[in-house]
Write a structure and sequence with these properties.
The structure holds 2 protein chains of 2 kinds. By secondary structure, chain A is of the alpha+beta class. Chain A is 37% helix and 16% strand. In chain A, the strands form 5 sheets. In chain A, strands 1, 2, 7, 8, 9, 10, 17 and 18 form an 8-stranded mixed sheet that branches. Chain A has a 4-stranded antiparallel sheet with strand order 16-11-19-20, covered by helices on one side. The two termini of chain B are 25 Å apart. By secondary structure, chain B is an alpha+beta fold. Chain B has one domain: Alpha-Beta Plaits. The longest helix of chain B is centred in the middle third of the chain and has 6 residues. Classes of the chains: A alpha+beta, B alpha+beta. Chain B: One of its GO terms (molecular function) is 4 iron, 4 sulfur cluster binding. Chain B: Keywords: 4Fe-4S, Iron, Iron-sulfur, Metal-binding. Chain B: InterPro entries: 4Fe4S_Fe-S-bd, 4Fe4S_Fe_S_CS, Fe-S_Ferredoxin.
């Protein structure tokens, strides 16, 4: 059946990054007929294909408990030890399969090192695997909205085919997995501009709940002129001011964070990797070519020359907020709807801090596996969806008034509340409350007067998604009246033990927040263990 | 951002049109892709990785290169071997070892002597 027509599937996966690929593969392994639709191209789309992933990857044994304990502490006690254990276990097994399929993991001392995957290689192989499993892949098929039956059970999605004159497509399915990635607000960070949070908007229209949206303040350092936010090598950096004077950074804070704080306060900061041991320099290049190559193209030798830095917003891509998952198979609160990868909350495995640099990569693999199997199981138990499914899309798609706004205007208005480091890297109650009021107005204007035709239909939806995200983020940041992890309130710098719980948010015309009644599950701290 | 599609090297396979995650290219009248939506380019280098003839050049800049920039001078860039540089780094193409097999990230992450991780 050609695109532009209607397709039928047991499981529809939205998103073709690692989480979507693992979800599609897992659903197909469970016997489901699967369609995977990606906004871009499954294989290059998303932050992983461009950037690669380190993985939270540990063999069975006592090191897992140590890792869980370490992360629950760093993650500021919002994690869930049971989920972490399952994620470690599933990631370990799945990465083992990836090795069995021939992924060329490097060898060191006669042992395969499986704690890192290179983006293009990993995702090219995942695409091939998904294709061989019989999954129908639809590239350049952004989803614009979900479809539901008369009981409100999610029963498919509809969108447009970007490379086929924007013709409409529609897939009716017994279950849907949202694996559309996080939201980086079109900040330009390499690989993240596909991540406009579309999946959360369409899920929220179906009534899905979100969690951890206050943990959306991830920024990364890139060259001032560029977009390459690879930070691992900056462990060897010294930081300088514009006169070339070594910056005296505060002790007790990792230097990269201290440099980021200076940038957030408007200072200029330069980096040079002068602390890189000579014998490691070749290995550094082999580890992170996408850190070195853009700088080399710009004529910078990072070992001998300083280069200026800037902060690039990475939002929930490298933060931890997303769709709330209710069950071990990553079901959301909406029947028929499952979530995986950066579209789902990662607080369970990384808490209040960034899951970038290993946990998010492991979460994509494992949550994709859970959600794919869960969706296939749901599809098996469910009958074929009725005809005449209701499309749920509203803002940007079905405006309630005359066309008055362009996507570009709405994107710029939403970005203003989120992208500047003084808004998100350092938050303050006064500014958040002002944003809340402005964003209410912007949402009303968006629902009334934003729409587009052709390619702008997608752009309008993306713009609406950014406004919705700005509102959820602002509401959650106000509800978390403290500082914790990456959520830094300059007006409330301390952690408040009364907020030792996750915060849920959701809603479109009326945004709400409330404490998650499901409490974090923590391992006893080691000191307590010793004392007992 | 993407700056150059070298018509001297391009074989009009249109792979870049297919793989670009933000749909920056359109097929030109002669089959050679044109950069139709440079503003949508996110400088991810995926087109450079996939291009089988090293016909593309993505500048390391987040904005379009100014007209007199070295990043738009095709002849000079070709001479310096800068087209297809990321494909070489990733180790794709005939006679190359996959970059993944040389990956040394394990030396720099949590298990390694170096501490601060990304």
């Amino acid at each position: 059946m050609s695109t532009g027509d209607a397709l039928e599937a047991d499981v529809l996966v939205l998103g073709g990054g690692p989480a979507g690929a693992w979800a599609a593969l897992s659903a197909a392994e469970s016997g489901a007929r699967v369609v995977l639709a990606d906004k871009g191209y499954c294989g290059t789309s998303g932050a992983t294909a461009s950037g690669g992933n380190n993985l939270w990857h540990l063999p069975p044994g006592p090191r897992r408990d140590e890792a869980i304990l370490a992360r629950q502490h760093k993650g500021a006690h919002l994690t869930d030890a049971g989920w972490m254990d399952r994620v470690l276990d599933t990631t370990y097994r799945r990465v083992g399969e990836l090795a069995d399929w021939g992924y060329p993991f490097p060898h060191h001392d006669g042992v395969q090192r499986r704690s890192s995957v290179q983006g293009p290689e990993y995702m090219r192989r995942m695409r091939r695997r998904v294709h061989r499993a019989g999954v129908r892949i639809l590239d350049h098929h952004p989803a614009l909205e979900l479809l539901a039956d008369s009981d409100g059970v999610v029963s498919g999605a509809a969108g447009l085919a970007r490379q086929r004159e924007h013709r409409p497509w529609r897939v009716s399915a017994r279950a849907v997995v949202i694996a559309t990635g996080g939201c980086a607000f079109l900040s330009g960070g390499f690989g993240t501009n596909v991540d406009t949070g579309d999946g959360l908007l369409i899920a929220a229209e179906a009534g899905a709940e979100l969690s951890g949206m206050e943990f959306s303040t991830a920024y990364a350092l890139s060259p001032k002129w560029g977009v390459h936010t690879k930070g691992l090598m900056l462990q060897f950096a010294s930081y300088y001011d514009e006169r070339g004077t070594l910056l005296d950074l505060p002790a007790g804070v990792p230097p990269r964070q201290a440099a980021a704080l200076l940038l957030a306060r408007g200072q200029r900061v330069f980096a040079r990797l002068d602390r890189a041991p000579r014998h490691l320099r070749a290995a550094m290049r082999e580890a992170q070519p996408n850190y070195f190559l853009p700088l080399e193209k710009a004529g910078v030798d990072v070992f001998t020359q300083t280069y200026p830095l800037r902060l690039v917003y990475e939002g929930t891509v490298r933060g931890s907020g997303g769709l709330r998952v209710l069950t071990e198979d990553c079901a959301t609160t909406v029947p028929g709807l499952f979530a995986a990868g950066d579209a789902a909350t990662r607080e369970l495995v990384t808490g209040a801090i960034s899951g970038g640099g290993s946990h998010n990569g492991a979460w994509a693999i494992s949550s994709g596996t859970f959600a794919g199997r869960g969706a296939a199981g749901f599809a098996r138990r469910r009958g074929r969806p009725e005809r005449g499914l209701a499309p749920l899309g509203r803002a940007g798609l079905r405006p309630t008034g005359p066309h008055t706004l362009t996507p570009k205007e709405v994107v710029a208005a939403a970005q203003e509340h989120i992208l500047p480091p003084h808004r998100s890297y350092l938050r303050a109650g006064v500014a958040l409350r002002a944003s809340r009021v402005s964003l209410e107005g912007l949402w009303r204007e968006t629902t009334t007067g934003l729409s587009g035709t052709g390619r702008d239909r997608l752009r309008a939806r993306q713009a609406a998604s950014l406004v919705a995200h700005a509102r959820w983020i602002t509401a959650a940041a106000l509800a978390r009246a403290e500082s914790r992890g990456m959520h830094r309130r300059t007006d409330l710098p301390q952690r408040n033990p009364a907020l030792d719980h996750r915060i849920l948010t959701g809603g479109l015309d009326e945004v709400w927040t409330r404490p998650d009644p499901v409490l974090p599950v923590l391992l006893p701290a080691r000191d307590e263990e010793r004392a007992s | 951002m993407i700056e150059i599609v070298s018509s001297a090297r391009c074989v009009a396979c249109d792979l870049c049109i297919k793989v670009c995650p933000t749909d920056v290219f359109e097929r030109g009248a002669d089959g050679i892709p044109v950069i139709a939506r440079q503003d949508d380019c996110q400088t991810c280098f995926m087109c450079e990785v996939y291009c089988p003839t090293d016909a593309l050049y993505v500048a390391p800049l987040g904005d379009p290169a100014p007209p007199d920039s070295p990043h738009t001078d095709e002849d000079a860039l070709v001479q310096r071997g800068e087209l297809g540089a990321y494909r070489a780094a990733v180790g794709w193409g005939r006679g190359r070892a996959p970059g993944a097999s040389l990956d040394k990230n394990y030396l720099f992450t949590q298990d390694a002597p170096a501490r601060e991780q990304r």
